Amino acid sequence: MKKLALEDISQKLVQIIETQDSEKVRYWAKILDRQRDPLVTAEVFIRIRRHLSQKDQALDRWFQDIYFENYNPDVKDLWLDFVELCSLSVS
């Protein structure tokens, strides 16, 4: 997928997250989580987190709580480590 498309998707998801509508965020988090290519999911997740962490740390934590609410804490930690490694190559 093109970088521009991933950036557009990320920005739209950030706008949804900023509404703090937990049902909408859960819905789109599940859609994101079901992507066939985990690297696409990771890149969108990275872009969302970069934007949120620069703008609002509390909102970033809220998003993470929603995104990982049905996951084991070890899986969450592994995913965040994976995303951190991937973020080195995402511009």
Q: What attributes characterize this protein structure?
A:
79% helix; 0% strand; mainly alpha
**What's the rounded overall pLDDT mean?**
90
> Which radius of gyration do the C-alpha atoms yield?
12 Å
* Quaternary structure annotation: single chain
Which percent range describes the beta-strand content? under 5%
Tell me roughly what share of residues is in helical segments. over 70%
User: Helices and strands, in N-to-C order?
Assistant: HHHHH
- What is the strand tally? 0
- Based on secondary structure, the structural category is mainly alpha
Q: What is the rounded distance between the termini? A: 14 Å
Shape: globular
What does this structure look like?
With 91 residues, the protein is mainly alpha-helical. Helices cover 79% and strands 0% of the residues. It contains five helices and no strands. The chain has helices at residues 3-18, 22-33, 38-55, 57-67, 73-87. Helix 3 runs antiparallel to helix 4 (57-67) and helix 3 (38-55) crosses helix 5. It starts with a helix and ends with a helix.
What can be said about this structure in brief?
This protein is mostly helical and 91 residues long.
